[in-house]
Amino acid sequence: MAKILTSKPLGFFTPDPGNPRQHVPNEELRELHDSLKKQQFVPLLAKQDGLIIDGWRRWSAAMLDGKPDHLDVIITEEKLSLAEIRGIQLVTALHKMDFTPWEQFLGCRDWLTLNTGATAKDLAATIDRDPSMLMRILSLAKCIPSVQQAAAEGRLGVSDWYAISKVAEPDQEKMLAAKLAGASRDQLEQRGRKLRRGANQAIRINRLKVPIGSQGRSVTLAGTNLSLDDAIELLQETLKFARKAQCDSLDGKTWVQVMKQKAMTGA
Q1: Centroid of chain to Cα 135
Q2: Nearest alpha carbon to residue 124 among 110, 140, 135
Q3: Does residue 213 surpass a pLDDT of 80?
Q4: Is residue 216 very low, low, confident or very high in pLDDT (cuts 50, 70, 90)?
Q5: How far is CA 192 from CA 15, 132, 179, 183, 205, in A?
Q6: Runs of H (alpha helix) within the chain
Q7: Hey, is 47 helix, strand or coil?
């Protein structure tokens, strides 16, 4: 499909209400406006009907006082779907330093909504980004409304809401209060670990049988009032002794006998 570089009056253009970029401070628009009046270096990208795909900030800056009254634009004749348009907007916006964390979340969320069945990994491949980073951005969807509101207001960053998203909903309000009171990212993560540990400690059983793999294998832990933290500690200790036995060239049966002897003697 053809792409035509031309110049169009401001009235030709229509802003896309679904653009992930939501707001630009007036001072930034004024600076961009002054630059445009001297020379426009980067053309807008728009559909044939004037819908702005990329360049909303430039158009908004010109609209401050109607100058310049024309803008250079690349008109694409491609039949772009709404999902493809969002993808283009997201890619171009992510390259800009002033694309806020909240806008990043909106752009990623909307792209996934428009691409039914797609995952964060699919989005990462589309826009050439680290999948783990996109999962952190999208973790805001797991947060309660007050956390999302704080993010929309610019009071939280991605690392903040990612830490909050990892705790149960009843505890998210506590985490939010800690952050708004001045907690650092590390302090927030530490608080989250304590809250999760408390939730894990609340459920205790005497036997844990954990299936491993698809060959019918399992690991069994037995004891009195085992919590998940207890299980993790036991597995770490067992692995340490198993590796030592491997270094000593012991077989599995001999290793079990050695461990039984240790348990009897308290060694």
Answers
A1: 4
A2: 135
A3: no
A4: confident
A5: 41, 19, 11, 12, 23
A6: 26-38, 56-62, 82-94, 101-114, 120-127, 131-138, 145-152, 158-165, 169-180, 185-201, 228-247, 252-265
A7: strand
What's the length of the chain?
267
| Nearest of 203, 176, 207 to residue 192 by alpha carbon | 176
Structure tokens at 24: 């630009």
**Residue with token string 């939010």:** 176
Closest CA relative to residue 13, chosen from 54, 106, 33, 265:
54
Comparing 48-52, 127-131, 178-182, the range with the smallest average pLDDT is: 127-131
Q: Which residue has the tokens 């694309």?
A: 99
pLDDT in tens, 11-23: 999 998 888 776 7
The pair phi, psi for residue 6, each rounded to 5°, is -150, -175
| 204 against 195, higher pLDDT | 195
- Ramachandran class of 249: left when φ > 0, alpha when ψ lies in -120 to 50, beta otherwise: left
| Residue from 204, 148, 140, 129 nearest 166 by CA | 140
- Does residue 44 sit in helix, strand or coil? strand
127 alpha-carbon distance from chain centroid? 14
The Cα 156–Cα 165 span in angstroms is 12
Q: Which amino acid is located at 156 in the chain?
A: L
Give pTM, 2 decimals.
0.52
Strand, helix or coil at 129? Answer: coil
Angle at CA of residue 21, ends 12 and 188, nearest 5°: 175
